[in-house]
Design a protein that fits this description.
Blueprint lengths: L3 E5 L3 H13 L3 E5 L2 H10 L4 E5 L6 H7 L10 E6 L6 H6 L4 E4 L4 H22 L2 E2 L3 E5 L7 E8 L3 E6 L10 E5 L6 E11 L4 E6 L4 H18 L5 H4 L5 E2 L1
Parallel strand pairs: 1-2, 1-3, 3-4, 4-5, 5-13
Antiparallel strand pairs: 6-8, 7-8, 7-10, 8-9, 9-12, 10-11, 11-12
Length: 245
């Protein structure tokens, strides 16, 4: 699993520095030079980091202002690129920005900033990331009745998608019973139906999860994510502040 970023800027030198720094941290980079196009992309795609040139790109500030209203990227780690003449640091933070970069941007300052932000990006990825996994799941709907059987397709901290062999009763509040692969951790979680398709896939949302089960699930998911995240030493040891000049 690779972290992904969107850079919105028409400043060739800033883009060069950002691309070099992000790729060195094994973060994929998508470059966009038009605010309208960036808005379309942010509506349909999810990014771990969004870097916006607020002052030197027409419409950039508006993209940043509307970012937290986009369902896909409302929790993405955001960076404001400022020129020191228009938008102030305080104004940027007031719009929900996590980090501020000041022009002229240097490789050293960009590296400090993204090293400092990497942990935030990885934690956010863990929060929303759905881990693909096939495991047997028993589904109890009514006490005393035979359990339904299914095969999971993915699991996250908040829910699970399952391919069912039989249809669920309407208005059911099922309990999902499963053992996480590679562990002896058997979980029994109350759930609600979030969505269903015509091919038998059903998305379940976990409800009222006991803290002990939360910890087991989080630990297992973290272990899976760690296996796929970049293991660059420099991505673990960086330091910096939220305002990089």
């Amino acid at each position: 699993m690779t972290l992904e970023s969107l850079v919105l800027s028409g400043d060739a030198e800033a883009v060069r520095v950002l691309r070099h720094t992000l790729e060195k941290l094994s973060i994929e980079v998508e470059i966009c030079q038009e605010a309208k196009k960036a808005t379309e992309i942010l509506t349909s795609e999810k990014f771990d980091a969004v870097i916006v040139d607020c002052d030197d790109l027409q419409g950039g500030l508006e993209v940043l202002q509307g970012l937290r209203a986009t369902p896909s990227n409302k929790n993405s780690v955001t960076f404001a690129l400022l020129n020191g003449k228009k938008t102030s640091t305080q104004e940027a933070f007031g719009m929900g920005v996590n980090f501020v970069l000041q022009k002229p941007l240097t490789t050293l300052n960009a590296a400090r900033c993204f090293n400092a932000a990497l942990g935030f990006m990885e934690r956010e990825r863990r929060r929303y990331y759905r881990q693909p996994v096939k495991m047997s799941v028993s589904i109890s709907v009514t006490p005393g009745e035979e359990e339904l059987k299914g095969i999971s397709t993915n699991v996250s901290e908040g829910g699970m998608a399952i391919l069912l062999h039989h249809a669920l009763p309407k208005n059911a509040t099922p309990w999902l019973k499963f053992t996480l692969p590679g562990t002896t951790a058997h979980l029994e979680l109350e759930s609600g139906v979030a969505w269903a398709d015509s091919k038998g896939h059903v998305g379940f949302r976990f409800l009222n999860v006991p803290q002990a089960s939360v910890e087991v699930l989080e630990q297992w998911l973290n272990e899976q994510v760690e296996k796929e995240l970049p293991d660059s030493p420099e991505s673990r040891t960086g330091s910096g502040s939220e305002v990089i000049q």
